[in-house]
Amino acid sequence: MKNQNKSNKSKQINQLKKLFCFKFILTLKISQSKTNKQTGFTQNQDQVSNLRDQCTFLKKSPSIMHLHNQFSFYFLNIEEKIYTQLICLLQGKFQLYEMNILVIKAKFKYEKISQINKSKKSHTSTIKKNKKNEIKTNQKIEIILNQFFILKKTQSKLINYFLLKMKCQI
């Protein structure tokens, strides 16, 4: 396992070395050609003025084309790997954001439901308390009314009794 990792790392390092060497050679050729008012892949002995002529010259000289192909191969592979890694990272971050959004939505829904349940419980508990209070007050009112009626009855009995006594006396 460790040997495979080391070999993979060494391969990557070698590819990067080749890439940087080729970039260095390419920049040297470009700088030389700019001084000669030519583009990158022409030599001093073969001066080309047109792009069309330069393309034909590149087709004729395979060593330059091989370097160009090597550069594009390594560079494009590295670029493609970087893009795929970035895409994977972004997809992972996007999935994390989606998961976070779902978690936040679930928490928000849970909080709403718990608030509704609390309000229902508090509402039902207040209703129950109110009902208990109403029952207690109703019982107190009934007791008071019963006492009132008893007092009224006794008062009426007393009044009737006094009235009868008075009649008898008259």
If you had to describe this structure to a student in words, what would you say it looks like?
The longest helix has 108 residues, at 62-169. Helix 1 (2-35) packs across helix 3. The protein has a domain at 62-137. The radius of gyration is 50 Å and the shape is rod-shaped. It contains three helices and no strands. It has 170 residues and is mainly α.
Instruction: Compute the number of strand runs.
Output: 0
Oligomer: single chain
Derived from helix and strand composition plus strand pairing, the structural class reads mainly alpha
Uncertain runs are 37-42
Measured on Cα atoms, how large is the radius of gyration?
A: 50 Å
Helix content bin = over 70%
Shape: rod-shaped
What are the key terms here?
0% strand; mainly alpha; 170 residues; rod-shaped
